[in-house]
Amino acid sequence: MSVTVTGKKTLVVIRHTPYGSSLARAALDAAMAMAAFEQAIDILFLGDGVLHLMPDQDSAAIGVNNVGKLLASLPLYDIDSVYVDAASAAKYRIATYDTPIAGQFLDQAQIQQLLSRNDHLLGF
């Protein structure tokens, strides 16, 4: 569980594909950096961002590190609250049991509640 210095919670929203640009990696780096300074961080994979959760990704052909390994390290930073857009996950046939990190799948109403209960939103 995260120890919060400010008492405020930040939601990092990842909406971009893992390998299409540097935005997705920047989002994960920002989340880990904030968590390293004991900020309470939640992550939401939304829209195309759910592609981070595809199992068995092989990014060697494009010469970048596999995002699955990075996601597996999130608990080391006390980032335990990971949320997934259920509709987008269904679109890409991503199952709850087959992701590199456990996440809670949310419907649209639950996503709206999540957005409203965080003090800060950081979108990528």
Structure write-up:
There is one protein chain. This protein has helices spanning 23-36, 67-72, 86-91, 108-117; strands spanning 9-14, 40-45, 81-85, 104-106, 120-123. The chain is of the alpha/beta class. It has a five-stranded parallel β-sheet, with helices on both faces. 29% of the residues lie in helices and 19% in strands. The model is unreliable at 1-5 (pLDDT under 50).
Summarize the structure.
29% of the residues lie in helices and 19% in strands. The chain has 124 residues and is α/β, with parallel strands linked by helices.
Question: How is the topology of this model organized?
Answer:
Blueprint (H helix, E strand, L loop, with lengths): L8 E6 L8 H14 L3 E6 L21 H6 L8 E5 H6 L12 E3 L1 H10 L2 E4 L1
